[in-house]
């Protein structure tokens, strides 16, 4: 369950928390963000192609299909995107016949599999009770999954389930998928990649598929899942700046913030043995 202290504190840091979830990512929002997402994808996609040589890619929570359009530019013609009704057909960067409308808060059906599944900064928008079944659906689609989701205190519109990276890794482990840091260690510090991808993007590999992926070796597999917990300097500096504002705006504000942060971190550590524990 989400910690009420985290809910209270994040409400004070951002006015965006009260807005509904994925439906508030409009065509205008996608247009503003597209170029930065394109630059990120143009860095990450070639790395994925070198590692796994995917002939087919599915993006769950694809938005307007920006990431898939970059895969297509790099020769992956078999692409498929899934997202909600708020994505306008005229904004799609992929063929309309390669797009499925689905409510990601509910189970969806795709009657085929792919070489690679991608789901980037989507799962935090879904209720916590949906997390396990969402991971199950991702792993049913492909033996290789590039996944990222917002961590605690990562501001954003409609974020309702903020978890550390190792929380998700344990859900993937239930499906016999191993966590690899092959992507993050290649893009860390790269200013062309959006900071939340640098921080959160973990590549999950089905155990029995590793032998078929010569680009991924044992050194890329993370055995101690707590090591996945990292915070990008850009997020750290953003939060540090907000702490400074609290220091000067409210008597005792900094001390209250520290108490709340310590409580949330303590609760997070107690839960780190595994989801639902």
Describe what this molecule looks like in 3D.
By secondary structure, this protein is an alpha/beta fold. It has nine helices and seven strands; from the N terminus they run H-H-E-H-E-E-E-H-E-H-E-H-H-E-H-H. A seven-stranded mixed β-sheet has the order 3-2-1-4-5-7-6, with helices on both faces. It is globular, with a radius of gyration of 19 Å. Residues 1-21 have low confidence and may be disordered.
Brief rundown of the structure:
This protein is of the alpha/beta class and 277 residues long.
Tell me the overall shape.
Answer: globular
Q: How large is the radius of gyration?
A: 19 Å
Mean pLDDT: 84
Give me the secondary-structure category. Answer: alpha/beta
Find the count of extended strands (DSSP E, 2+ residues).
7
| Strand portion | 5-15%
Helix content: 25-40%
Biggest sheet, spatial arrangement of strands: 3-2-1-4-5-7-6
Low-confidence stretches: 1-21
The number of helices is: 9
